[in-house]
Write a structure and sequence with these properties.
With about 500 residues, the chain is of the alpha/beta class. It contains 19 helices and 23 strands.
Length: about 500
């Protein structure tokens, strides 16, 4: 039997009608008849096109406040009947069930209703029953029926009609079925996640329309991003974003979110290589760059304030991949756009999930994001000498940075400026040595510098190294059975130490 199928009868029942008129007119020109309900029927008839009603077909009106319209054997029989099955044809004839060759339907806007903050009853009423059933039925019987399950598929349908008329082949129908199951699975996932929160007993996620990336972690790897990047950022300029760009952008926005003061940060491979808080954005940039002017090459720049012309002139002197700010002066943009590949992003306020997901082995890890932010009241002094007000501010500043640095990590800060960090080391001693040597290589005077560690000190060796370098205050989570050894060492060398009780591992 031929896999080419004519379209003779279409069932149309949609919430979104924009863009549908030309399709209806084309189908009518091709001799297709229509069955519809309520507002869609009125829409079709407003085009001057006759339309039968589901009520006339089934002999039942729309009931229960519109909850039951199409749920009837004469509707679903017409969709599910197998044209090449003799028994199906006999039963369809016996019960006067017309064949339905095309179903155009969409779903109530459930996710939009949830996002609006509507009360639960309003949300529940946007759980589509008839529409989702029509989609599944028509997609299941794709060998005979075309299903158009969202307005996103109006364009492919219009293209098919323009090329072939009211005829489809198996490849067309299978494509639309695949798209329909993407719609239904995504819709059900959204409903499930509404009911699931916050238990986390099951894991369901659905995402559409992936953003193509230049390449993956390496150029020989292909990659896509599933998510709504445009909800968070507006790209004003530059090349297509890569997988590594996204990782750095994510790290940058998570870091800058920690700071209420005017701050500028430079990141490389997901870690801060420079960050400072200052009264002006130009001063913050200068101080951030001083933290590691070498690693800044090819980095990601981010600030939490408007980028002005003066700062744009300064940053324009180095090569960097991406710059992110909440807004830009026009003159600043003109300067920054001089490099055609430079990615310029506007960071837009948006609600972010409180969960993190990571694929590994044959599954997915989920965890709550580390949203803990310590304040002076969270600091527990451990030593005879206590940090002064300047040191306390710097300790909290350093602690925010180490929270967003790859473990094992040590950060050195003075006057709200990152002097150096040791990151991603297998030994905390190595991380501290790396930080000290790096700070010295950029001519920082470590006298009065404070140190943050992402985890406790199992031995006092780090304290000894810090004291000899000129470091005067230490912040760490505590929790080692040997905490007293480190505290005693601080007292011996005259350092102050505070603990937070919160570890900040980052892998």
């Amino acid at each position: 039997m031929s896999v080419t199928k004519p379209i003779k009868c279409a069932l149309v029942s949609v919430y979104h009608k924009d863009g549908l008129d030309q399709i209806i007119k084309k189908l009518y020109e091709e001799g297709v008849g229509f069955i519809s309900t309520g507002g869609t029927q009125a829409f079709i008839e407003s085009l001057g096109i006759p339309c039968g009603t589901v009520e006339d077909l089934t002999g039942y009106p729309s009931i229960l406040g519109g909850r039951v319209k199409t749920l009837h054997p004469k509707v679903f029989g017409g969709i599910l009947s197998r044209r090449d099955n003799e028994q199906d044809r006999l039963q369809a004839s016996e019960y006067e069930i017309p064949e339905i060759d095309l179903v155009i339907v969409d779903l109530y806007p459930f996710e939009e209703t949830v996002a609006s903050g509507a009360e639960e009853q309003a949300v529940i009423e946007k759980i589509d029953i008839g529409g989702i059933s029509l989609i599944r039925a028509a997609a299941k019987n794709y060998r005979d029926v075309i299903i158009v399950a969202s307005k996103a598929q109006y364009a492919p349908l219009a293209d098919m009609l323009a090329a072939k008329g009211a005829v489809s082949d198996l490849e067309d129908r299978r494509f639309f079925a695949k798209e329909a199951f993407a719609v239904s699975s995504g819709y059900d996932s959204a409903i499930f996640n509404y009911f699931e929160q916050p238990q986390g007993e099951h894991y369901r996620i659905a995402a559409d329309h992936p953003m193509p990336l230049r390449y993956g972690e390496n150029p020989h790897q292909s990659a896509k991003f599933y998510g709504d990047f445009s909800a968070l950022f507006q790209q004003l300029h530059g090349k297509e974003i890569s997988y590594n760009n996204l990782l750095d952008i994510d790290a940058a926005v998570n870091l800058i979110a920690e700071f209420d003061e005017l701050t500028f940060a430079i990141l490389k491979h997901n870690n801060a290589c420079g960050i400072a808080s200052r009264p002006t954005v130009s001063e913050a940039w200068t101080a951030a760059l001083a933290g590691d002017p070498v690693s800044a090459f090819g980095g990601i720049l981010i600030t939490n304030t408007r980028l002005d012309k003066e700062t744009a002139e300064a940053v324009n002197t180095i090569f960097f991949e991406v710059i992110i700010a909440p807004e830009y002066e026009e003159e600043a943009l003109t300067l920054l756009k001089q490099k055609k590949n430079r990615i310029i992003l506007v960071h837009q306020p948006s609600k972010i999930s409180a969960l993190q997901h990571r694929s590994l082995l044959n599954g997915v890890l989920t965890q709550e994001k580390d949203l803990s932010i310590q304040t002076p009241s969270d600091l527990q002094p451990l030593t005879t000498k206590q940090p002064d007000s300047r040191e306390t501010e710097d300790l909290l500043f350093a602690n925010k940075i180490v929270k967003h640095s790859k473990s094992n990590a040590i950060t050195l800060v003075k006057n709200k400026q990152l002097c150096a960090s040791g990151i991603g080391q297998t030994s905390r001693v190595d991380a501290l040595k790396q930080a000290v040597e790096k700070a010295k290589s950029f001519d920082f005077d470590l006298t009065g510098v404070v140190m943050a560690s992402d985890a406790f000190f199992p031995f006092p060796d780090c304290v000894e190294i810090a004291a000899k370098a000129g470091i005067t205050a230490v912040i760490q989570p505590g929790g080692s059975i040997n905490d007293k050894l480190s505290v005693d060492c601080c007292n011996e060398y005259g350092l102050s130490m505070v603990k937070t009780g919160i570890r900040h591992f980052k892998h």
